[in-house]
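re: the backbone from monday

yeah here it is again, tokenized this time
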């Protein structure tokens, strides 16, 4: 398992992406899996900084590990409670320029991962768990 704690600052998210990339690469993740997971974790961490902490001071604990054939990434914060799994899917039938802003990041996280789970963090905050199998999805090459 690899883990880091970073300040909730957009300038620190490169470290989060690097951790996920290192864990995925060292465990033989195919390029599509690696790209999906890095994008999903980056979006989730960005949401924590911008919407959770609202650019105020805070931290994000990030842990990544291979469990079986699945990479599991956990992001924990002390921001106000927010469950992205309860956020509705965007209405993709509405043209992008007519949609209400927001919600596409969570949609992208769902598309890029096999599962997205939220639970409250003891003492306050959120724990978000993203998983992505090393096995290719349909239309992906290994």
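seq for it, each position gets an aa:
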């Amino acid at each position: 398992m690899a883990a880091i704690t970073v300040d909730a600052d957009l300038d620190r998210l490169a470290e989060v992406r690097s951790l996920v990339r290192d864990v995925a690469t060292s465990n033989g993740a195919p390029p599509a899996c690696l790209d999906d997971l890095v994008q999903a974790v980056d979006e989730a961490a960005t949401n924590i900084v911008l919407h959770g902490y609202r650019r105020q001071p805070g931290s994000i604990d990030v842990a990544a590990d291979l469990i079986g054939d699945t990479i599991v990434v956990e992001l924990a914060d002390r921001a106000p409670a927010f469950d992205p799994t309860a956020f509705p899917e965007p209405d993709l039938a509405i043209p992008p320029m007519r949609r209400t802003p927001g919600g596409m990041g969570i949609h992208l996280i769902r598309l890029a991962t096999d599962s997205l789970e939220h639970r409250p963090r003891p003492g306050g905050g959120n724990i978000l768990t993203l998983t992505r199998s090393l096995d290719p999805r349909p239309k992906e090459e290994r």
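The chain has one domain: 2-133. The chain has a mean pLDDT of 91.
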